[in-house]
Amino acid sequence: MASVLGMLEEREAAARVRVEGLREEAARVAATLEAAEIELDRRVIAREELVEALAVHAAETTAAVTPVEEESAPSLAPVPGSPVPPWREGLPVTVLAPDYQRILGVLEERRETGLGPLRAKEITAKLGLEATPAKVEGVRSKARRLAERGWLLLEVSGAFSAGRRPVDVPGADSSE
């Protein structure tokens, strides 16, 4: 009887060592996954910022060589990767790229039903996107850009709500 009990204790000890080894391996994999997700988020944001900067630069370059008569009738159609213009009275939502229009739509619908602001993760879910860190950060980046340019309101809590406010545009003169 003692030898059977001893064999069971040996097997239990071996199983315990294996479980501890697997727990350590799982912790290493979780840490590696978290680092990879953070890197992915940074790269998504960097790419979006680069696309925006290039679009602004291209718009400035185009504006510098465009004849004055063409400036009087700008196209209001959005272009993928186009910058978000500062909101001003009379500017239609259709000047925004479709992703930005969808974010505004979610928050406008929320306001119309009398509900409060939404966080980026909630907006992501309402858009039908998987709430992965990369998707949430992409939506947060777009919503912040809309808020910075007066299309949305950024609450103190970090949530976003529908609303418009004029934004000062550097270099814009009221006499022009």
Account of the protein in words:
- The chain has one domain.
- Helices cover 60% and strands 3% of the residues.
- The protein has five helices and two strands.
- Strands 1-2 form a two-stranded antiparallel ribbon.
- A hairpin with a 5-residue loop joins strand 1 and strand 2.
- The chain is elongated, with a radius of gyration of 26 Å.
- About 4% of the residues have low confidence.
Brief descriptors of the model:
176 residues; mainly alpha; two-stranded antiparallel ribbon
The count of helical stretches stands at 5
Biggest sheet, strands in spatial order? Answer: 1-2
- Nearest-integer average pLDDT: 83
Shape: elongated
Number of domains: 1
Low-pLDDT regions: 68-74
Task: Tell me about the largest β-sheet.
Answer: 2 strands, antiparallel
Class computed from helices, strands and strand pairing? mainly alpha
**CA gyration radius, whole angstroms:** 26 Å
* Distance N to C terminus: 100 Å
> Would you list the SSEs in sequence order as H and E?
HHHHHEE
Q: Per DSSP, what share of the residues sits in E-state strands of 2 or more residues?
A: under 5%
Percent of residues in helical segments? 55-70%
What is the total tally of β strands?
2
Annotate the secondary structure layout:
Elements lengths: L1 H64 L2 H4 L26 H15 L7 H7 L6 H16 L3 E3 L5 E3 L14
Antiparallel strand pairs: 1-2
Helix pairs in contact: 1-5, 3-5, 4-5
